[in-house]
Amino acid sequence: MSQMKFEIPKIELMKSGHVACPGCGASMAMRYALKALGQNTMIVIPACCWAIIDGPSPCSVNGVPVFHTAFETAAITATGIKAGLSRQGDNDTTVMAWAGDGGTFDIGLQALSGAAERNEDIIYVCYDNEAYMNTGIQRSSATPWGAWTTTTPTKTPKSRPKKNIIDILLAHHIPYVATASVAYPDDFIRKMKKAKSIRGMKFIQILSPCPPGWKSAPEQSVHISRLAVNSKVFPLYEVEDGYRYKISLNHKNIPVEEYLKHQGRFKHLSKEQIKQIQVDTDTKWEVLMKKVEMGELFSEN
Predict the structure, then answer these.
(1) Type and span of the H or E element at 246
(2) With contact defined as beta carbons under 8 Å apart, do 238 and 291 qualify?
(3) pTM of the full structure
(4) Which of 74, 4, 86, 1 lies closest to 44, judged by CA?
(5) Contact residues for 120 (Cβ-Cβ < 8 A; gap 6+)
């Protein structure tokens, strides 16, 4: 896969004055998302970091209508708003649910599954910072194996692997699923624009560095995001129609240890544990490449 370049829109809908932590990946992600989607957008935000980042009521930094809702209801609320707009004859406004991993992988999974099964015409974005960051850095099912959180301290770190939310959404046979990274804004914006152009349910997972939760330096967030991609811990790809997998760019073969060493949440890991993470990462990459090959085969037929 050759490296592709795209022009980043100059429009700035997200204003200054948000209250995110320095280096917050979620704030960068929202800025890029709004650049891609444009003014004719409505956002649904459940309880999560972004419920705070957006600013105290009645203020909002996003420059488009925002509807705050309960933790578990991002998908169903976005569905209702889209239905209301359609009832009024408005089929052009993009409705985007914007939730963290806690409200997506865990608490909101039932509503997300329902919306996906019905193929609702919304974009659902999960900014994945791999823990419940807004409430004190507790582990979620998106937390990686071996990671420190306040509920999985260093003597008893996360003992289960990260849930594969992409495969869960693909099991619903929705038209578009993708991963994205703030380290690659061209690819990020291209995928958001593609999602906007497709009717039906779209799901995008964004790896979102959290300096307090990851125990990383704020100025390292983009660098860490790039390492996540190029170590293949968080590969960038997209899937159309449930089976057509496409790798988004050339991934370098950076050792997983290079990604882990910048984050204090992994500093307790032994060399053997890091080797195991490398083995797991390599295995998942091989499986992904097999899916890409099968998708190409089906497309040819």
Answers:
(1) strand 244-247
(2) no
(3) 0.96
(4) 74
(5) 75, 78, 79, 82, 200, 201
List of residues 6+ apart from 87 with CB closer than 8 A: none
Question: In this predicted model, what pLDDT tens digit does every residue of 124-166 receive, in sequence order?
Answer: 999 999 999 999 999 999 999 999 999 999 999 999 999 999 9
Q: Is the peptide bond before 58 cis (omega within 30 degrees of 0)?
A: yes
Name the token pair of 239.
Answer: 């899937």
Task: Measure the CA–CA gap between 191 and 197, rounded to whole angstroms.
Answer: 10
Distance, CA of 192 to chain centre = 12
| Helix ranges (DSSP H) in the chain | 25-37, 49-53, 74-87, 109-117, 165-170, 185-197, 211-214, 221-230, 256-260, 271-300
**pLDDT per residue as tens digits for the range 163-211:** 999 999 999 999 999 999 999 999 999 999 999 999 999 999 999 999 9
Compute the distance between CA of residue 107 and CA of residue 110 in angstroms, rounded to an integer: 8
What is the domain class of 25-300 according to CATH?
alpha beta
DSSP-assigned states of every residue in 77-145? HHHHHHHHHHHTT----EEEEEEESIIIIITTHHHHHHHHHTT-S-EEEEEE-SSBTTTT-B--TTSPT
Q: CA dist 76 to 80, 125, 208, 230, 299, Å?
A: 6, 14, 23, 35, 33
Beta bridge pairs of residue 43: 66, 96
